[in-house]
Amino acid sequence: MPAKRLQQYLDQQGVKYRVISHSPAFTAQEVAEAAHIPGKVMAKVVIMTLDGQMTMVVLPAPKIIHPDRLARSLSAQEATFIHESNFREKFPDCEVGALPPFGNLYEMPVYIDSELAQQEEIVFSAGSYRELFSLTMKDYLRLVEPKEIAL
């Protein structure tokens, strides 16, 4: 079942989106394959701390984050990955590992990879291991207002 907070928000904003159901998959790359979605438009969410502040980083499924490079690109002293057990409570309506890239709904700053931000659409986990949402990148950028970064 999609995250209620996300679905209500998109409906309230009048944003058109598509729900894509797929067989259970757990990594962003597996989800993209199961749903027959190109990896370059399939977004994965990584929760990190930047100088101690919890942040959401959104990038294409096949891409990997290098914390030192991320810290340098954002003029931060330190970027570290956070274990899921340390942020699970911030996303009560989502299955762990299936977070939607809407940090604004969870009081968290969002950074998006510039390569992903250039795509026409964005596809992402909707809070469950079985459903994705697809919407235009234009709508996503307008609603979330993420800071664009080169990863």
Architecture overview:
Helix content is 23%, strand content 27%. The strands form two sheets. A five-stranded mixed β-sheet has the order 4-2-3-5-8. It has a three-stranded antiparallel β-sheet with strand order 1-7-6. By secondary structure, the protein is an alpha/beta fold. The longest helix is centred in the N-terminal third of the chain and has 9 residues, at 4-12. The chain is globular and about 40 Å long. It contains five helices and eight strands; from the N terminus they run αβαββαββαββαβ. The protein has a single domain (4-149), classed as YbaK/aminoacyl-tRNA synthetase-associated domain (YbaK protein).
What is this entry, summarized?
Helices cover 23% and strands 27% of the residues. By secondary structure, it is of the alpha/beta class.
CATH superfamily label: YbaK/aminoacyl-tRNA synthetase-associated domain
Q: State the domain count.
A: 1
> Taking all residues together, what is the mean pLDDT?
89
Q: What is the chain-wise order of helices and strands?
A: HEHEEHEEHEEHE
Question: Key features?
Answer:
151 residues, 5 helices, 3-stranded antiparallel beta sheet, alpha/beta, single chain, YbaK protein, 5-stranded mixed beta sheet, 8 strands
Reconstruct the topology from this structure.
Elements: H1 4-12, E1 18-21, H2 28-34, E2 43-50, E3 53-60, H3 67-73, E4 79-81, E5 110-113, H4 114-117, E6 121-125, E7 131-136, H5 137-144, E8 147-149
Parallel strand pairs: 3-5, 5-8
Antiparallel strand pairs: 1-7, 2-3, 2-4, 6-7
